[in-house]
């Protein structure tokens, strides 16, 4: 499988968020088939593990924020001594689900915001659970819960499990599966997270807590990762993390780790490519385009593969989905679940830097995107502190 020079391949051999989640779970007694996280963490004797996830905070974005003086709290934490990658595709549905389950996308099946589901013969939005073409709701989504959550597994081993997340997400189908086994502590504003997090650290009771901040991602999408609005949100997040660290009891047996599910790249409006029109979808494809604007899954009609490839080749790297699957792009092949293979179609198109594939079912153009394999999208920070 040939990748272009700018592509960052997910490092499932020990340097990805998959390995980070697997190692945190293993410390609390959960067996894993995956390689341990490559970089040292001060886990020895830790009774409480707190994982903070700042959605879309790429390693480069954090480095720039530190240079601007916008992230003094994060700058004072101990960084991983080497690069850490997201998963592929570098998007929340794939990467955050990996952090919730300690499984790769090819194992848990959440392979993008939208995927082809053989079970219902449609491309489905995995957050809103509807057919993206007809908007017909998915009435039975139980089959999507393919692996146990990490919280359920630690709880079964006597470890208290908690998630600190926005109240708006509490009752979604994805949350009920991915956070199964955890006590859900909802917040209306992220400033409530420090007090909620501190309350999960109880003497004599080992615990695992995930704290999730999605606001930075939303602002980067709308205003761009290099916007004043994104800078302001990161300063806010830094203050909240400072308050969280201050609120924790100083027992010496708590490990705090901060990471991201993926980064963000600025998306020029003129970089949106309009080659997948309604006519193209109707004549050349067996179903609507799935995946992401920065990592698209296509199912060409028989005999039209070359035609679709010719439309996209000037703007994107094209991979056979079979090659991507067996080549380990979506997870270690030895652990990939064969029934999820059709979800990524027959052809995967990863746009070149600065480009995005717009299609009839896309939302309004955004100024920040992720999903592809540039360093901006793929490299994430891992910071830690023992408290």
TrEMBL record:
- Cite a single Pfam family from the UniProt record: Phosphodiest
The record's InterPro entries line, in alphabetical order, gives: Alkaline_phosphatase_core_sf, Phosphodiest/P_Trfase
Checking SUPFAM superfamilies in the record gives: Alkaline phosphatase-like
What start-end ranges are recorded for coiled-coil regions in this protein?
Answer: none
Protein name, per record: Phosphodiesterase
Give the organism the record lists. Deinococcus radiotolerans
């Amino acid at each position: 499988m040939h990748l272009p020079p700018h592509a960052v391949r997910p490092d499932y051999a020990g340097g990805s968020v998959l390995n980070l989640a697997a190692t945190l779970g293993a410390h609390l007694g959960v067996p894993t088939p995956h390689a341990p996280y490559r970089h040292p963490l001060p886990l020895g004797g830790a009774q409480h593990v707190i994982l903070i996830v700042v959605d879309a905070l790429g390693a480069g974005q954090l480095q720039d924020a530190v240079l601007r003086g916008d992230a003094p709290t994060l700058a004072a934490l101990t960084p991983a001594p080497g690069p850490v990658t997201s998963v592929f595709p570098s998007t929340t549905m794939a990467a955050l689900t990996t952090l919730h389950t300690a499984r790769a996308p090819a194992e848990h099946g959440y392979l993008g915001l939208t995927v082809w589901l053989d079970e219902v013969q449609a491309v489905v939005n995995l957050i809103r659970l509807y057919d993206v073409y007809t908007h017909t709701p998915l009435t039975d989504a139980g089959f999507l819960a393919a692996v146990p959550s990490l919280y359920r597994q630690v709880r079964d081993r006597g470890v208290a499990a908690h998630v600190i997340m926005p109240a708006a997400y509490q009752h979604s189908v994805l949350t009920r599966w991915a956070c199964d086994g955890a006590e859900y502590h909802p917040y209306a504003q992220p400033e409530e997270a420090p007090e909620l997090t501190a309350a999960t650290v109880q003497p004599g009771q080992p615990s695992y807590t995930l704290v999730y901040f999605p606001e930075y991602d939303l602002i980067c999408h709308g205003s761009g990762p290099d916007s004043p609005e994104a800078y302001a949100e990161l300063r806010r997040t830094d203050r909240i993390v400072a308050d969280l660290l201050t609120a924790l009891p100083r027992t010496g047996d708590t490990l705090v780790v901060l990471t991201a599910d993926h980064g963000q790249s600025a998306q020029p409006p003129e970089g949106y490519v309009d080659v997948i029109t309604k006519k193209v979808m109707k004549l050349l494809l067996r179903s609507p385009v799935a995946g992401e604007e920065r990592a698209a899954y296509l199912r060409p009609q028989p005999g039209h593969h070359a035609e679709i490839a010719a439309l996209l080749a000037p703007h994107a790297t094209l991979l056979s989905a079979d090659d991507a699957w067996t080549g380990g792009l979506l997870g270690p092949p030895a652990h990939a679940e064969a029934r999820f293979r059709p979800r990524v179609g027959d052809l995967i198109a990863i746009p070149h830097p600065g480009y995005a594939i717009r299609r009839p079912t896309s939302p309004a153009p955004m100024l920040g995107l992720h999903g592809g394999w540039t360093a901006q999208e793929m490299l994430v920070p891992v910071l830690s502190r023992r408290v």
